Structure formats: C-alpha cells, structure tokens
C-alpha cells in the first residue's frame, strides 16, 4: 500500500509533554467500526470497565524501560575524540547491544566509545565499548567491556531515559520521567521505549477490573527504538521492520485459550502486546507458548487471529503503528477518529490520551 495513505496533519500543540494526573484521568476515544450509529464516543480511561464483560481478559506488556540513551566520546587512532550518542534498542548477547548511533556516518567498525565521562560505574570509571558491526540507518553493534548484571548496572548509572524524539525536541529528560515513562506493572527489564497505552493504568483501575471479573495477564515484548523510526519508503512492501525480543509463557497461553473457548474476549493494552499475541497465534486463533524475535508488520488486509479489542494511544502519521490500528479498525474509520481527536483536543503520542478500538468485522 502507499504510505501516504496513512498521512495526516497534527498541530504541534496536540503533542503531550507530560502524562495526565492521575493517569486514568486521560481521555479515551472509543472506536467501534461495527456500530454505524455510534462509531466514535468520548470517555475517560477510568471508564474502561464499562466496555468490558466478566470473563474477558486484558493482556499487558510487562517490559520495563531501561535508561538506554548513552552519551560518550568516540576514540580512534590518529583522529580526535568525537562526541557521539547511542540509543540501545536490542540486546544480542550478555555483552552486546544493537544501537542507533549519532552521528552514524562518523562511526566505524573498531572504534572505541567511552560512555559516562568519568562517572563511577566500574573500576575504570567509565563504560567502554567497541563498535563490532555497522548496518544501515546509523545502526551499530556495541561490544561492551562489561557483561551481564555488571553491564546492566553500568547502563543504569550512566544512561538516560530515552524520551521519544517528539518530546526530547521540546524539553530535556528529568527525574519525573523515570517514573512517568514506566507502567505501574513494569517488571522485565529490557525495553528502550515504554508500552505507552499501559501508562494510563492505576491501582484503582486494576481493582475495578478485578471486581467485575475481568482477567489480567502479562506477556513481555522488549520495545525497541525502532518504534520511533519513520517509514521512509513510498510503499509498505519496501519498509523493513526492526525486530524485538519477547515471549508468551505456557501458562498464559493456556489461560488465554480458555478465555476464547468460553466466549470471552482478548483485549490487548498496546500494539506491543497485540503484535506479540498475533505472533504467537496459529491461523485458527490458538495461542501457543512463544519466544524469540518478532518483526511482524501489520497493515490493512491482515487477518487478526486472536485479538478482539485494542487499547492504544494516538500514533504518528505515516508510522507502522498508525498502519496497524488502521488494519484493526479500518483505515477510513481511523482517519475519521484521528480527525475527531484533533478537532476535540485529544493529546497525542506517548504521554497523550488513549483509544479503545473494536476489531472491524
């Protein structure tokens, strides 16, 4: 499909720089493409239980954001030091991370990068790495001098929360972001971007879901920085998705299949949990235990196998995520929904408001 089909104009003032307080006070646009009389309706996130039924199951991504934005100095024999930054996006070994580097053109295989500028993170006083490989679009592979838990601790010390570029361009990361840019149920460390639909949930909202008999289940997909990359191709067939690591354990798969068997619905919180569940599902909708790297690219025409509803934030124009929601609820429906959201003051992107989508029949 042509990528420009997924374009729209977003006024700059619609980009949220802080989350709602309390979190479940964010607005929620309910989109039901199968209800012609009431396709769009305006609510708050705390109203979510009124759209669910006892026996439904809500699926969350419990990945935890790490401070994956690193600043350092590139060293090369015969050349002066060069200020560089690296955003880690996927771990490939205990001592290796794939990262997006800037300025990418000035980095070569074999370069040494010293992160931390003297902060005490190891016996050497810095976190050092060697550029082991270089790909397209500024992607590099870093082999760190530390490994495993020692590397994790060093990254946590010298790293910064990798705020999305549309926020970072307007303000610096601060201490609030360490809490704001993390779901209340985050557990498995490894993401460099938050599963932002989950940022709306509070203990009170969890209690309301529990009280009405809605199940809660957790899967893990470590969101990578590739989620922020624009689609530069003119046709979706020419776009290359970046892979992300995740898993669905056997117990969760059994419980979700039981939900479907008794007529309950699966509601995914965030496109990350949806992509993981769809990666794990057979063609007949049976969810299997699954682990590995998924690069599933969902565009209109995709047949959803397991997910019935999706709660998600408002996404960037010409993005893979806007393509996904258009596949789920219909392109015309989602274009109308985004027009309504812009005109009525919804807040967009990571810290913005949410939407609840029914899958189009």
Automatic annotation (TrEMBL):
Q: Its function? A: Transfers and isomerizes the ribose moiety from AdoMet to the 7-aminomethyl group of 7-deazaguanine (preQ1-tRNA) to give epoxyqueuosine (oQ-tRNA).
Q: Where in the cell is it found?
A: Cytoplasm
Q: Family membership, please give it.
A: Belongs to the QueA family.
This protein's assembly is summarised as: Monomer.
Q: Name one GO cellular component term.
A: cytoplasm
Instruction: Return the SUPFAM superfamilies for the record.
Output: QueA-like (SSF111337)
Which leading EC class covers this enzyme?
transferase
- Tell me the organism: Rhizobium lusitanum
The entry's protein name is S-adenosylmethionine:tRNA ribosyltransferase-isomerase
């Amino acid at each position: 499909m042509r990528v420009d089909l997924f374009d729209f104009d977003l006024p700059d003032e619609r980009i949220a720089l802080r989350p709602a307080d309390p979190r479940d006070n964010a607005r929620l646009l309910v989109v039901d493409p199968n209800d012609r009389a009431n396709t769009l309706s305006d609510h708050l996130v705390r109203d979510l239980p009124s759209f669910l039924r006892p026996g439904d199951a809500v699926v969350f991504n419990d990945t935890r954001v790490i401070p994956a934005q690193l600043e350092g100095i590139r060293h090369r024999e015969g050349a002066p030091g060069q200020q560089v930054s690296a955003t880690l996006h996927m771990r490939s070994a205990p001592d290796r991370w794939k990262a997006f580097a800037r300025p990418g053109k000035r980095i070569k295989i074999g370069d040494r990068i010293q992160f931390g500028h003297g902060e005490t993170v190891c016996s050497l006083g810095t976190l050092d790495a060697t550029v082991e490989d270089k790909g397209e679009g500024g992607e590099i592979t870093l082999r760190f001098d530390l490994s495993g838990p020692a590397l994790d601790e060093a990254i946590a010390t010298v790293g910064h929360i990798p705020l999305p570029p549309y926020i970072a361009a307007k303000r610096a990361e601060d201490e609030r972001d360490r809490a704001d840019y993390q779901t209340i149920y985050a557990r498995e460390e490894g993401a460099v971007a938050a599963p932002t639909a989950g940022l709306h949930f509070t203990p009170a909202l969890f209690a309301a879901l529990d009280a009405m008999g809605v199940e809660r289940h957790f899967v893990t997909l470590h969101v990578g920085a590739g989620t922020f990359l624009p689609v530069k191709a003119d046709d979706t067939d020419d776009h290359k998705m970046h892979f992300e690591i995740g898993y669905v354990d056997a117990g969760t798969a059994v419980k979700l299949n039981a939900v479907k068997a008794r007529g309950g619905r699966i509601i995914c919180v965030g496109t990350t949990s949806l992509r993981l569940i769809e990666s794990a599902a057979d063609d007949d909708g049976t969810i299997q235990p699954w682990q590995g790297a998924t690069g599933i690219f969902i565009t209109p025409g995709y047949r959803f196998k397991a997910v019935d509803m999706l709660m998600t934030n408002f996404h960037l124009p010409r993005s893979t995520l806007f393509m996904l929601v258009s596949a789920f609820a219909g392109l015309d429906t989602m274009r109308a929904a985004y027009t309504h959201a812009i005109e009525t003051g919804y807040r967009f992107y990571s810290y913005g408001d949410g939407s609840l989508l029914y899958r189009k029949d």
